[in-house]
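ingest -> validate -> predict -> emit
validate: passed (alphabet ok, no gaps, 235 aa)
predict: started
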Amino acid sequence: MEIFYYFCIRMKKMICHISLLLLLMMLVGACHKDTKVERNETPVDTIPMMVMQIQKCSKLYTAEYHLHKIVTHKDQMRLKGTFLAKEFDITLPVGNRRIAIPIDATLKAYIDFGGFSEKNIKRRGQKIELTLPDPKVQLTSSRINHQEIKKQLSILRKNFSDEEMTNYEKQGRAAILNEIPNLGILEMARESAANTLIPMICQMGYKEEDITITFRKKYTTDDFPIILDSKSFGK
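emit:
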């Protein structure tokens, strides 16, 4: 009888241990299941936050370029007209006029992020590409270095007038404008913008190698109306 009683007690203990073990396994399974559900949740959409942060950059100056341009001009006094129904164009032997005008100018490129939106962002999985707004190039300063102007005048020729000097300065501005595509200032602007934006995007969980910063196209002289700040060039 005692043996039977002892056997029953042992069985009860074993049943309790087995029950506790089963309960523990069920709890672990439930926790593991919950963890899997959390991991499979859709990641938080960071694009609106990214747009908001980039818009705060407003007008971001990204590149600066200093230019020294020399405008040269040479002319001769000529006599033009008509005699006996024939046109004539004669160079008068009174000497030439020559001038070399040094012009110093500063160009700055900037990107206005005021209109930046989700349309400028493409995301494919972990890869993300930002298309920057069109850059702008601004002529922030230009001046004639009067101390270094070189002139050569014949005794019979008049000095250059203020109006002529103003026209030569305009020619210098036009020459600077034509050189912009060859200066690399737009690529400098893209790289500078990338150096500003990539760390910001990395803080949102993206890897640097997964981020691409680009313009919508490669700009040429045909794009001058788009990229030039017309106010600064006096257009």
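Helices lie at 2-39, 47-55, 162-183, 185-202, 224-227.
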